[in-house]
Write a structure and sequence with these properties.
Metal Binding Protein, Guanine Nucleotide Exchange Factor, Chain A
């Protein structure tokens, strides 16, 4: 699987975990040069507290376009250490 935004591959892995139709990529599959920490955060009742990354490619910013659960609840343990995408980031095989 590949995560692509602005004609650039942000992450690539054959080992994604699908939860709620989102592919969670291993953190070490991300091309770190495109990611910036965000102060955003949300809470999911069954997964826990989500943190976000913004993505910057060729000077364009996609704010809070990736999220992860640093310490997921037990029901979502399979996504620990993984990152998912939205906001126009295409996830393709």
């Amino acid at each position: 699987m590949k995560a692509i935004w602005n004609n650039t591959v942000l992450a690539e892995s054959n080992d994604t975990v699908v939860v709620e139709n989102n592919h969670y990529f291993p953190a070490d599959s991300l091309k770190q040069e495109y990611f910036e920490d965000s102060i955003a955060g949300t809470t999911c009742p069954w997964k826990g507290r989500a943190s976000y990354y913004s993505v910057r490619v060729n000077g364009e910013l996609n704010k809070d376009a990736a999220w992860y659960y640093a310490d997921p609840k037990p029901a979502a343990e399979q996504i620990k250490g993984r990152v998912a995408f939205w906001k126009g980031v295409q996830v393709v095989a």
